[in-house]
Amino acid sequence: MAGIRFGFAGVWLKIMVAGIPILALTCWYSPVTNLYSRLGFIVFGAATLVELLWLMWRYRLLRYLLLTICVVSLVFACWSDTNVEVDQTALRAAYVNSLNSYIDKPYLWGGEGRFGIDCSGLVRRGMENALVWRGICTLNPELVRNSVSLWWHDNTARGIGLGYGGRTRLITQCSSLNELDYTGLQAGDMATNGTHIMAYLGNKQWIGADPGEGKVVRFLIPENGNFYFSVPMKIVRWTVLENKH
């Protein structure tokens, strides 16, 4: 009986060892995310880290390496240096590149990932990716923290158009994107009518997760075949893309 109990314990241990990282990845890659999936990723991600430490503890080099990575990551995340400047041009380019990487990804209402994404999910996830990339490249933890804040605080096209807690700012309004004066627009600016939102790529090109097309697509002005280019729009800009000096 003891052997049977030990056998069952061994099976359950293997299930937990394999299952916890799978649950963390499932929460991370789930197309539709919400508060529960975000909490799930944090809980299962932390459990995966503990599991790795437990598995590697007997191997001194791996143990120290993982502990060092954890400590350095924690220090980096908490470090604050107001003298670190943000290169808005480079961040804007990273944002545009991130948006373009989602071309042809399927449209999914409420989606925020490469397996399915909606209009607000596209502009937010694009910025999240750009902030993390530039934050790591320039050793600027503030950008990484901004990315985490965007990931945690979900919002809609309407909310982004209304300021998104100070993260966006109204630039102008227009009767339609086909009639908009593009002189003052910058790559990364966004257009929203409260129910749909798109991002400007420059050179009179827009990108959006379009429900009619069923995927992420680029549009070139003039665009006469898409409803959203003939209706009034607010033009908003990410405040992180504005020069603070």
What characteristics describe this protein?
endopeptidase fold (from Nostoc punctiforme); six-stranded antiparallel β-sheet; two-stranded antiparallel sheet; 7 helices; 8 strands; 48% helix
Can you put this structure into words, describing what you see?
The chain has seven helices and eight strands. Helix content is 48%, strand content 16%. Helix 4 (88-100) packs across helix 5. It folds into two domains: 2-78, no CATH class; 88-241, endopeptidase fold (from Nostoc punctiforme). It has helices at 2-29, 35-56, 60-78, 88-100, 119-137, 141-152, 157-161; strands at 112-113, 116-117, 168-174, 190-192, 197-202, 205-210, 215-220, 233-238. The strands form two sheets. It has a six-stranded antiparallel sheet with strand order 3-8-4-5-6-7. It has a two-stranded antiparallel sheet with strand order 1-2. It starts with a helix and ends in a 7-residue tail after the last strand. By secondary structure, the protein is of the alpha+beta class. Residues 1-9 have low confidence and may be disordered.
